[in-house]
Amino acid sequence: MKIEGIELRRVTMPLKTPFRTSFGVEHSRDVLLVRVVTPYAEGWAECVAMNEPRYNSEYVDGAADVLRRFLVPALPDDVDARTVGRLLAPFKGHRMAKAALEAALLDAQTRAGGESFGAFLGAVQDRVPSGVSVGISDSVGELLDVVEEFLAQGYLRIKLKIEPGWDVAPVRAVRERFGDDLLLQVDANAAYTLADAHHLRRLDDFGLLLIEQPLADDDLVQHADLARRIATPVCLDESIDSAEHAAAAISLGSCSVVNIKPGRVGGYLEARRIHDLCRAHGVAVWCGGMLETGIGRAANLALAALPGFTLPGDTSASDRYYATDLTAPFVLSDGHLTVPSGPGIGVDPLPDVLEDVTSSTEWIAR
Ligand code: OSB
Ligand code: MG
Known about the structure:
The chain is an alpha/beta fold. The chain has 2 domains: 127 residues, Enolase-like, domain 1 (2-Layer Sandwich); 220 residues, TIM Barrel. It has 12 helices and 13 strands. A 7-stranded parallel β-sheet has the order 5-6-7-8-9-10-11. The protein has a 4-stranded antiparallel β-sheet with strand order 3-2-1-13, sandwiched between helices. A two-stranded antiparallel ribbon has the order 4-12. Helix 1 packs across helix 3 and helix 5 packs across helix 6. It binds 2-succinylbenzoate and magnesium ion. 2-succinylbenzoate binds next to loops.
């Protein structure tokens, strides 16, 4: 596939309500979009790096910088999207930036071939069950109202963000109010240490599906220790940034579930490798999110339709975060989202919306 040029476009997407986690509060999403232009088709992708390096070490200005200085120039004029991972491997880290470039090329290539991204990846479902990630609230009463509203919309699984001081009480309140049948899990974003093992064991009483990333991202050994001390299944997010990390985590017993985010692991093809590995080892996976617009959401839905995604993901509807999405909105139907079936990721940015939210564009000609 011949590349004519690549556009880096920054858009500012206001969030409907602030989203609070143990690492910070987001009020709006500053998104980097990558558009690749080829003679046959254009490809779009979304870089999931956030404004500040708090979730992991990447941040959006850094992603734009490494793309323009190193990653885009490393591509030959004629490239098969499936080789991009190997071509970019000499540059360490920067997985979110690499993932966006690879995804834009995969979109262009599958569009040109008239194939949907889901079909390309090996999707076996035409719709996927939706969960929702619920931020830290100011009070338990407020949290219960928020959860009630999401359940009324049809979400099939609730994930509560937790941190020290906001864990057992909100979990107990949600469990008591909405009953034992509610699929409920928590995400600590690395806010605890192994010294909290005793405290975290109190969550065992609430029948949680899993606890996501309780400890530091670089601590597979301590996660294995914790996993032996609590009954709630341990799921890893930040700790898994490649198939090699997933293999190590499985060998050590650090987790029994993995949250797969394509951006975090360097792309959809690496995400699929992690899926394949976990599936072979009987480790459940689900598709995480990074407050994506419709562009990233569409591609995530294709991935979440692979057979090993046996738990509902954070693949929520467009209106979870955005009053106006960049694409035609993804709407919940019976608690599910439909996997796009058109060529490539199956969605395009709406020109008027895109124009409105764009703060800058940069064209890198080849
Ligand atoms: O840890 O899963 C996470 C959002 C931003 C960064 C990290 C995380 C999250 C979420 C929300 O939990 C996922 C989503 O709804 O897109
Ligand atoms: Mg997480």
